[in-house]
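Structure request: CDP-alcohol phosphatidyltransferase, Ostreococcus lucimarinus.
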Amino acid sequence: MLDYVRRSRLHLVTGGHDAAEETPCAHCARGRHVGANARRCAQVRAYAYSSPNLSLCERLFLNAFWDGAVRRSCPTWIAPNLMTALGLLAIAVAYALIWTLSPNLAFEAPRWTYAACAALAFAYQTADGMDGKQARRTKSGSPLGEVVDHACDALSMCIYPLIVMDIFGVGHRSRDARAICTTMMMTGRAMFVVDTVSSTFTGVLPVSEFLDSQEIQLICQTLMLCVAFSGSNAFLYAPVTVPFVGATTLGRAGAVFCITTGAISRVGTFVNTVLKANKKEAPPHWPAYRKPLSIAARCALVEAFHGLCLYKAKNFAYAHATSSILFGESEARIMSIRVSDPDFPVTNWLALFIMALTTVVPEGDAFVSGMLMGAALFMLLHRGSCLAAQITGCLGMHPNIFIIRPRDA
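Returned structure:
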């Protein structure tokens, strides 16, 4: 009976993939490991990392800064995944600060909060830029490292817009404020999903040479520092005149410029990806029956559902945290197609059910909201641990992803 319950739970969580069942790996002579089979191990071993192009700020100073920081301050025993995790912890602290000190997202936190958020966000960006260089330096790169890095990027993608919404004093109590807040957050996530599908199909993360994620992060950090030292967000409402648009505010003009530039770049990249798929130019790692457009459409529907749930949720802070965690799990699923399991399902129906429950939790009920957030965190850790077991087992690596040394024979 207990075995039946366990397998039913795994079927709901993983869509039929019983990652608790050990099977011999046809490509690894070192023994048995969780969730392995010949098809998955062939996919893991076929993985080859392709470095993306450098964005504007990376070419100017960020790349040199990261190279120097790795050489001067990172011992060779520090695992790249550990650096990524520490960076995520930094941005998570900033997230907690904003919700604790400005729960209404109405620019009500003390001035030092925004300076701290800028420093923590830069710490995350630095760790995110250094981990890949540390992996190449220690020759410890693996498919798992790319998935961990991308999942952490997905979580940070949910945090940056929240801080910016607070700086603008948008709020989330009224219906109009909630609609604006949710729309801005879902727009950023939609562009991130397009990037993920494109990079999963082509094997290379699309990077705009002018304005990309690194530049957007620096703009957000500069914005945090400006409001920290000025003590007011009034400069965001300074009147400016934009050609072909007319009179508007500085903050609105900047936000529209960044969103428009990013959206055009992402849509163009995704169109090229779809055209390659239609011309039968799919890479060897991509299953012929899986179409990038179909995957992107399903992910878009999932994000639209998340946006609706956030709009309806009475405990917005908890609902946003739950949605962010599930977004990270969803991105890891998409990446799994390329680095681990070409047949892995991208839609997690249990995750959608958990998100739907956030809309019926009474306002102020922290216990039930916390339980739902804990369930989402369990799903993220479950997906990550299963993926880690598959990749480390196939490549004969140490099962602890935070250790750089071969697994003992």
